[in-house]
Design brief:
about 90 residues, alpha+beta, 3-stranded antiparallel sheet, 3 helices, 3 strands, about 15% strand
């Protein structure tokens, strides 16, 4: 798996392990804290981007745009004691 920020990646670890995950509004984080959360997430899987090289800055820009659009949200995963970025639709009640 590459570490490129992929909103289509089905990261269901949070929704599978926590009934009501703690959502963290990105607007309430300082710029330094938000950048740290995003960098940790996008670099978590290593540095192999495959055929297309994508820099960290472009990944950060993409992640910020997805947060602002509401397509992804930041949640605190109590099981793993770290922040996760998940698709908002995964946390919507059916």
């Amino acid at each position: 798996m590459s570490n490129s920020f992929n909103p289509d990646h089905n990261d269901e670890t949070v929704s599978d392990t926590v009934d009501d995950p703690l959502q963290i509004p990105y607007e309430q984080l300082s710029e330094v804290a938000l950048t740290g959360v995003l960098e940790e997430y996008i670099t978590r899987e290593g540095t192999d981007y495959g055929m297309i090289e994508r820099g960290v800055e472009s990944q950060l820009d993409k992640a910020r745009a997805l947060l602002k659009s509401g397509k992804v949200i930041i949640v605190f995963d109590e099981v793993h004691e770290r922040c996760q970025i998940v698709e908002a639709r995964l946390l919507q009640n059916p």
